[in-house]
Amino acid sequence: MNIAILDDEFDTVRTLDCYPQLAAHRVTIWREHSKDTDVLAERLQDTEAIVLLRERTPIRADLLARLPQLKMLTLNGPYPHVDLDACTAHGVVLCAGKPRPSSATAELTWGLIIASMRQIPQQMASLKRGEWQCALGRGLRGRTLGVWGYGRIGQQVAGFGRAFGMRVLVWSRETGLASARADGYAAAPSKQALFEESDVLSLHVRLNAETRGMVTAEDLARMKPTALIANTSRAELIEPGALVAALKAGRPGMAAVDVFDKEPVTDLQQPLLNMNNVVCTPHLGYVERDQLERYYNDQFGRVLAFAKGAPMDVANPQAPAAR
Protein backbone atom coordinates (compact mmCIF):
# COMPACT_ATOMS: atom_id res chain seq x y z
CA MET A 1 0.00 0.00 0.00
CA ASN A 2 0.91 3.64 -0.35
CA ILE A 3 1.22 4.86 3.23
CA ALA A 4 1.62 8.46 4.40
CA ILE A 5 2.86 9.36 7.89
CA LEU A 6 2.03 12.95 8.82
CA ASP A 7 3.65 15.52 11.09
CA ASP A 8 6.94 13.76 11.84
CA GLU A 9 8.63 17.11 12.49
CA PHE A 10 11.91 15.71 13.83
CA ASP A 11 12.20 12.87 11.29
CA THR A 12 11.93 10.45 14.19
CA VAL A 13 9.79 7.66 12.75
CA ARG A 14 12.58 6.21 10.58
CA THR A 15 14.74 5.77 13.69
CA LEU A 16 12.15 3.77 15.65
CA ASP A 17 12.57 0.02 16.13
CA CYS A 18 9.03 -0.56 14.83
CA TYR A 19 9.54 1.23 11.49
CA PRO A 20 10.91 -1.80 9.57
CA GLN A 21 7.45 -3.39 9.90
CA LEU A 22 6.44 -1.27 6.90
CA ALA A 23 9.37 -2.38 4.71
CA ALA A 24 7.09 -4.16 2.22
CA HIS A 25 5.03 -1.02 1.60
CA ARG A 26 5.63 2.37 -0.03
CA VAL A 27 5.95 4.91 2.78
CA THR A 28 6.07 8.70 2.50
CA ILE A 29 6.87 10.67 5.63
CA TRP A 30 5.82 14.32 5.80
CA ARG A 31 7.70 16.47 8.29
CA GLU A 32 6.10 19.81 7.44
CA HIS A 33 2.77 20.30 9.18
CA SER A 34 -0.16 21.70 7.22
CA LYS A 35 -3.88 22.11 7.77
CA ASP A 36 -4.43 23.56 4.29
CA THR A 37 -6.82 21.37 2.31
CA ASP A 38 -5.17 22.12 -1.04
CA VAL A 39 -1.72 21.26 0.28
CA LEU A 40 -2.91 18.05 1.91
CA ALA A 41 -4.92 17.00 -1.15
CA GLU A 42 -1.83 17.35 -3.33
CA ARG A 43 0.45 15.54 -0.89
CA LEU A 44 -1.95 12.66 -0.31
CA GLN A 45 -3.38 12.23 -3.81
CA ASP A 46 -2.19 8.61 -4.22
CA THR A 47 -2.26 7.66 -0.54
CA GLU A 48 -4.16 4.55 0.55
CA ALA A 49 -3.43 4.68 4.30
CA ILE A 50 -2.69 7.67 6.54
CA VAL A 51 -0.98 7.41 9.91
CA LEU A 52 -2.03 10.40 12.03
CA LEU A 53 -0.15 11.95 14.94
CA ARG A 54 -2.75 12.61 17.61
CA GLU A 55 -4.99 15.56 16.72
CA ARG A 56 -2.59 17.64 14.65
CA THR A 57 -4.15 17.35 11.17
CA PRO A 58 -7.92 17.66 10.65
CA ILE A 59 -9.50 15.17 8.26
CA ARG A 60 -12.78 16.66 7.04
CA ALA A 61 -15.25 15.97 4.25
CA ASP A 62 -13.73 18.48 1.81
CA LEU A 63 -10.34 16.78 2.03
CA LEU A 64 -11.73 13.23 1.89
CA ALA A 65 -13.63 14.08 -1.29
CA ARG A 66 -10.29 14.81 -2.98
CA LEU A 67 -8.54 11.59 -1.92
CA PRO A 68 -10.06 8.88 -4.14
CA GLN A 69 -7.37 6.29 -3.32
CA LEU A 70 -7.66 6.62 0.46
CA LYS A 71 -8.86 3.43 2.17
CA MET A 72 -7.95 3.79 5.83
CA LEU A 73 -6.83 6.12 8.60
CA THR A 74 -5.19 5.06 11.83
CA LEU A 75 -4.67 6.92 15.10
CA ASN A 76 -4.57 6.42 18.85
CA GLY A 77 -7.08 7.96 21.22
CA PRO A 78 -10.05 10.28 20.56
CA TYR A 79 -10.64 11.74 17.12
CA PRO A 80 -12.50 15.08 17.30
CA HIS A 81 -10.43 16.20 14.29
CA VAL A 82 -11.77 13.41 12.03
CA ASP A 83 -15.18 13.56 10.36
CA LEU A 84 -16.30 9.99 10.98
CA ASP A 85 -19.50 10.28 8.95
CA ALA A 86 -17.56 11.62 5.96
CA CYS A 87 -15.05 8.77 6.30
CA THR A 88 -17.89 6.27 6.20
CA ALA A 89 -19.54 7.97 3.22
CA HIS A 90 -16.28 7.81 1.27
CA GLY A 91 -15.56 4.23 2.26
CA VAL A 92 -12.55 5.16 4.41
CA VAL A 93 -12.05 2.89 7.40
CA LEU A 94 -11.01 4.64 10.63
CA CYS A 95 -8.95 2.41 12.91
CA ALA A 96 -8.78 4.13 16.29
CA GLY A 97 -7.15 2.35 19.19
CA LYS A 98 -7.18 3.34 22.83
CA PRO A 99 -4.00 5.15 23.92
CA ARG A 100 -1.67 3.06 26.02
CA PRO A 101 -0.99 4.18 29.60
CA SER A 102 1.97 6.54 29.69
CA SER A 103 3.79 8.57 32.31
CA ALA A 104 5.31 10.98 29.79
CA THR A 105 2.79 13.83 30.21
CA ALA A 106 2.67 13.52 33.98
CA GLU A 107 6.47 13.59 34.14
CA LEU A 108 6.64 16.68 31.92
CA THR A 109 3.97 18.37 34.02
CA TRP A 110 6.04 17.88 37.11
CA GLY A 111 9.16 19.07 35.36
CA LEU A 112 7.38 22.29 34.38
CA ILE A 113 6.07 22.78 37.91
CA ILE A 114 9.54 22.50 39.44
CA ALA A 115 11.10 24.65 36.72
CA SER A 116 8.50 27.35 37.31
CA MET A 117 8.48 27.37 41.09
CA ARG A 118 12.29 27.42 41.32
CA GLN A 119 12.59 29.70 38.26
CA ILE A 120 15.10 27.36 36.65
CA PRO A 121 14.94 28.79 33.08
CA GLN A 122 15.40 32.33 34.38
CA GLN A 123 18.30 31.27 36.60
CA MET A 124 19.96 29.44 33.69
CA ALA A 125 19.62 32.50 31.45
CA SER A 126 21.11 34.68 34.19
CA LEU A 127 24.07 32.36 34.65
CA LYS A 128 24.73 32.29 30.89
CA ARG A 129 24.77 36.10 30.90
CA GLY A 130 27.64 35.96 33.37
CA GLU A 131 25.41 36.85 36.32
CA TRP A 132 24.71 34.86 39.48
CA GLN A 133 21.34 34.20 41.16
CA CYS A 134 18.69 36.47 39.71
CA ALA A 135 15.60 35.75 41.83
CA LEU A 136 14.23 33.79 44.74
CA GLY A 137 12.05 30.78 43.93
CA ARG A 138 9.68 28.81 46.13
CA GLY A 139 9.70 25.19 47.30
CA LEU A 140 6.80 22.73 47.14
CA ARG A 141 6.72 20.85 50.45
CA GLY A 142 3.78 21.88 52.58
CA ARG A 143 2.04 23.77 49.77
CA THR A 144 -1.28 22.83 48.14
CA LEU A 145 -1.39 21.10 44.77
CA GLY A 146 -4.73 21.42 43.01
CA VAL A 147 -5.48 18.75 40.38
CA TRP A 148 -8.46 19.36 38.09
CA GLY A 149 -9.31 16.05 36.48
CA TYR A 150 -8.57 12.73 38.16
CA GLY A 151 -8.02 10.48 35.17
CA ARG A 152 -4.90 8.54 34.29
CA ILE A 153 -2.59 11.59 34.12
CA GLY A 154 -4.20 13.50 36.98
CA GLN A 155 -3.74 10.48 39.25
CA GLN A 156 -0.02 10.34 38.48
CA VAL A 157 0.44 14.08 39.04
CA ALA A 158 -1.38 13.79 42.38
CA GLY A 159 0.97 10.95 43.34
CA PHE A 160 4.00 13.09 42.51
CA GLY A 161 2.56 15.85 44.68
CA ARG A 162 2.20 13.46 47.58
CA ALA A 163 5.81 12.30 47.12
CA PHE A 164 6.95 15.94 47.35
CA GLY A 165 5.10 16.42 50.61
CA MET A 166 2.30 18.56 49.21
CA ARG A 167 -1.32 18.68 50.28
CA VAL A 168 -3.28 17.42 47.25
CA LEU A 169 -6.71 18.86 46.49
CA VAL A 170 -8.75 17.28 43.67
CA TRP A 171 -11.64 18.63 41.59
CA SER A 172 -13.29 16.33 39.07
CA ARG A 173 -16.52 14.66 38.10
CA GLU A 174 -18.15 12.74 40.92
CA THR A 175 -16.61 9.44 39.82
CA GLY A 176 -13.19 11.06 39.81
CA LEU A 177 -13.74 12.60 43.23
CA ALA A 178 -14.78 9.22 44.60
CA SER A 179 -11.59 7.68 43.24
CA ALA A 180 -9.51 10.52 44.70
CA ARG A 181 -11.07 10.06 48.14
CA ALA A 182 -10.43 6.32 47.93
CA ASP A 183 -6.77 7.09 47.18
CA GLY A 184 -6.56 9.28 50.27
CA TYR A 185 -6.77 12.73 48.67
CA ALA A 186 -9.01 15.60 49.68
CA ALA A 187 -11.80 16.68 47.35
CA ALA A 188 -12.15 20.42 46.87
CA PRO A 189 -15.50 21.60 48.30
CA SER A 190 -16.06 23.65 45.13
CA LYS A 191 -14.35 24.84 41.98
CA GLN A 192 -13.95 28.25 43.59
CA ALA A 193 -12.14 26.72 46.56
CA LEU A 194 -9.82 24.84 44.21
CA PHE A 195 -8.63 28.10 42.65
CA GLU A 196 -8.46 29.99 45.93
CA GLU A 197 -6.50 27.37 47.89
CA SER A 198 -4.10 25.99 45.27
CA ASP A 199 -0.47 27.10 45.29
CA VAL A 200 -0.03 25.00 42.15
CA LEU A 201 -3.02 24.13 39.97
CA SER A 202 -2.61 21.54 37.21
CA LEU A 203 -5.22 20.87 34.51
CA HIS A 204 -5.82 17.30 33.32
CA VAL A 205 -9.16 17.35 31.53
CA ARG A 206 -10.01 16.13 28.03
CA LEU A 207 -11.15 18.85 25.63
CA ASN A 208 -14.73 18.61 24.38
CA ALA A 209 -17.72 20.90 23.93
CA GLU A 210 -18.45 20.76 27.66
CA THR A 211 -14.93 21.57 28.86
CA ARG A 212 -13.94 24.18 26.26
CA GLY A 213 -13.36 27.46 28.12
CA MET A 214 -14.08 25.84 31.49
CA VAL A 215 -11.41 27.98 33.21
CA THR A 216 -12.68 31.55 33.17
CA ALA A 217 -11.12 34.92 33.91
CA GLU A 218 -13.13 34.95 37.14
CA ASP A 219 -11.60 31.61 38.16
CA LEU A 220 -8.06 32.82 37.53
CA ALA A 221 -8.69 36.03 39.46
CA ARG A 222 -9.34 33.89 42.55
CA MET A 223 -5.81 32.50 42.55
CA LYS A 224 -3.04 33.72 44.84
CA PRO A 225 -0.49 36.17 43.41
CA THR A 226 2.18 33.58 44.32
CA ALA A 227 0.32 30.68 42.65
CA LEU A 228 1.19 28.74 39.50
CA ILE A 229 -1.21 27.30 36.93
CA ALA A 230 0.11 24.45 34.77
CA ASN A 231 -1.57 23.33 31.56
CA THR A 232 -0.29 20.27 29.70
CA SER A 233 -3.75 19.24 28.48
CA ARG A 234 -5.25 21.66 25.94
CA ALA A 235 -5.03 25.44 25.66
CA GLU A 236 -8.73 25.69 24.82
CA LEU A 237 -9.67 24.58 28.33
CA ILE A 238 -8.97 28.18 29.34
CA GLU A 239 -11.21 31.00 28.14
CA PRO A 240 -9.57 32.76 25.16
CA GLY A 241 -7.26 35.57 26.28
CA ALA A 242 -7.98 34.97 29.96
CA LEU A 243 -4.60 33.52 30.91
CA VAL A 244 -2.50 36.34 29.46
CA ALA A 245 -4.77 38.95 31.03
CA ALA A 246 -4.69 37.18 34.40
CA LEU A 247 -0.89 36.92 34.41
CA LYS A 248 -0.60 40.62 33.60
CA ALA A 249 -2.98 41.36 36.46
CA GLY A 250 -0.88 39.26 38.84
CA ARG A 251 -3.32 36.45 39.66
CA PRO A 252 -1.95 33.86 39.28
CA GLY A 253 1.64 34.94 39.47
CA MET A 254 3.03 32.24 37.15
CA ALA A 255 2.08 29.79 34.43
CA ALA A 256 3.64 26.65 32.96
CA VAL A 257 2.30 25.92 29.48
CA ASP A 258 2.87 23.05 27.05
CA VAL A 259 -0.15 23.74 24.81
CA PHE A 260 -1.30 26.67 22.68
CA ASP A 261 -4.44 27.77 20.84
CA LYS A 262 -2.67 27.46 17.49
CA GLU A 263 0.10 24.92 17.00
CA PRO A 264 2.85 24.78 16.01
CA VAL A 265 3.78 28.20 17.37
CA THR A 266 6.03 30.05 14.94
CA ASP A 267 5.05 33.61 15.84
CA LEU A 268 7.63 34.98 18.25
CA GLN A 269 5.12 37.65 19.25
CA GLN A 270 2.94 35.02 20.96
CA PRO A 271 2.29 36.77 24.31
CA LEU A 272 3.11 33.80 26.53
CA LEU A 273 6.55 33.45 24.97
CA ASN A 274 7.42 36.99 26.04
CA MET A 275 6.38 36.86 29.69
CA ASN A 276 9.08 36.30 32.29
CA ASN A 277 6.63 34.60 34.64
CA VAL A 278 5.76 31.85 32.14
CA VAL A 279 7.65 28.66 31.33
CA CYS A 280 6.71 27.34 27.87
CA THR A 281 7.43 24.11 26.03
CA PRO A 282 6.30 23.11 22.49
CA HIS A 283 3.64 20.45 23.26
CA LEU A 284 6.10 17.87 24.52
CA GLY A 285 3.69 16.04 26.83
CA TYR A 286 3.64 12.71 25.03
CA VAL A 287 6.66 13.36 22.80
CA GLU A 288 9.43 11.11 24.07
CA ARG A 289 11.05 8.13 22.40
CA ASP A 290 9.55 5.27 24.40
CA GLN A 291 6.04 6.66 24.04
CA LEU A 292 6.43 7.20 20.29
CA GLU A 293 7.79 3.67 19.91
CA ARG A 294 4.67 2.25 21.51
CA TYR A 295 2.43 4.69 19.68
CA TYR A 296 3.69 3.93 16.18
CA ASN A 297 4.03 0.21 16.84
CA ASP A 298 0.27 0.15 17.47
CA GLN A 299 -0.37 2.27 14.40
CA PHE A 300 1.72 0.13 12.08
CA GLY A 301 0.06 -2.99 13.42
CA ARG A 302 -3.31 -1.62 12.33
CA VAL A 303 -2.00 -0.73 8.87
CA LEU A 304 -0.61 -4.24 8.38
CA ALA A 305 -3.82 -5.83 9.63
CA PHE A 306 -5.83 -3.74 7.18
CA ALA A 307 -3.51 -4.68 4.32
CA LYS A 308 -4.15 -8.35 5.13
CA GLY A 309 -7.91 -7.82 5.04
CA ALA A 310 -8.44 -8.08 8.80
CA PRO A 311 -8.73 -4.46 10.07
CA MET A 312 -8.44 -3.82 13.81
CA ASP A 313 -10.06 -1.26 16.12
CA VAL A 314 -12.54 -0.15 13.45
CA ALA A 315 -14.69 2.84 14.43
CA ASN A 316 -16.93 2.72 11.34
CA PRO A 317 -17.52 -0.86 10.18
CA GLN A 318 -20.02 0.38 7.57
CA ALA A 319 -17.25 2.07 5.56
CA PRO A 320 -16.19 -0.89 3.37
CA ALA A 321 -19.78 -1.30 2.17
CA ALA A 322 -19.85 2.35 1.14
CA ARG A 323 -16.70 1.89 -0.93
Task: Describe the fold and architecture.
The chain is of the alpha/beta class. The chain has twelve helices and twelve strands. It has two domains: 2-100 and 288-322, 3-Layer(aba) Sandwich (Rossmann fold), CATH 3.40.50.720; 104-280, 3-Layer(aba) Sandwich (Rossmann fold). Helices cover 32% and strands 15% of the residues. Helix 4 (104-117) crosses helix 6 (152-163). It is globular. The two termini are 17 Å apart.
Provide tags for this entry.
323 residues; Rossmann fold; 2 domains; seven-stranded parallel sheet; 32% helix; 15% strand
* CATH topology value of the largest domain: Rossmann fold
How is the biggest beta sheet arranged?
Answer: 7 strands, parallel
- State the CATH class of the largest domain: Alpha Beta
Proportion of beta-strand residues? 5-15%
CATH homologous superfamily name of the largest domain? Answer: NAD(P)-binding Rossmann-like Domain
Amino-to-carboxy terminus distance: 17 Å
Radius of gyration: 22 Å
Inertia-based shape:
globular
Could you estimate the helical fraction of the residues in percent?
A: 25-40%
Counting helices, strands and paired strands, the structural category is: alpha/beta
